Amino acid sequence: MSGKHKGPFKMRIYERANFEGQMHELTDDCDSIQDHYHMSDMQSCNVMEGYWLMFEQPNYEGKMFYLKPGKYRNLKEISSDDTRFNSIRRITES
Questions:
Q1: Of the options 2.60.20.10, 1.25.40.80, 2.60.200.30, 1.10.3720.10, the CATH number for the domain spanning 10-90
Q2: Exposed site from 3, 23, 46, 72, fewest CB < 10 Å?
Q3: Total Cβ atoms within 10 A of residue 21
Q4: pLDDT value of position 5
Q5: In the chain, what's the furthest Cα-to-Cα distance?
Q6: pLDDT over 80 at 76, yes or no
Q7: Cis bond before residue 69 (omega within 30° of 0)
């Protein structure tokens, strides 16, 4: 049971590195960042609460990256290539 996180969940996503450009706050899953937030790219984020998975493609597909609470100034550093992140899901089960 200790692996589950019941919430709250909160993160801010930014269009550009170093928390610049368009910003949106998420408290729930998002199956397509481009469709819901009209952001061309997401290059930094601040995970305030909860644990999240970010995916390369919409609908939680493609390469997956795990995010724990913290500030991520440049998401290109964790993906090591030109990965774009297109969907985000909360981790609610262990």
A1: 2.60.20.10
A2: 3
A3: 15
A4: 61
A5: 39
A6: yes
A7: no
